[in-house]
Amino acid sequence: MEMRQFDRYEVVAEIGKGAMGVVYRANDPLLDRTVAIKTVIMSDDPQEMAEYEARFYQEAKAAGGLNHPNIVTIYDIGRSGNVAYMAMELLDGEELRTVMKPGTALEPARAVEIAAQVAEGLAYAHQHGVVHRDVKPANIMILRNGNAKITDFGIARMRQSEVRTQTGVVLGSPRYMSPEQVAGKRAEPRSDIFSLGVILYEMLTGRPAFTGEDVTSVMYQILNVAPPPPSTVNSAVPPVFDFIIAKALAKTPEDRYQEAAELAHDLRDGAKHSAVTAPASAPAPRPVLEAESTQSLAASLPVERESDAEVPVVQTAPTLGLSKAFDSMSATMRLATKIGMSEAVQDLAAKTETGSSTEARALVSEIRKGPGWSDQDKLFFAVSVGAAMVVGVIIILA
Question: Which among 71, 92, 134, 253 would be 20 to 30 A from 35, CA to CA?
Answer without folding.
Answer: 134
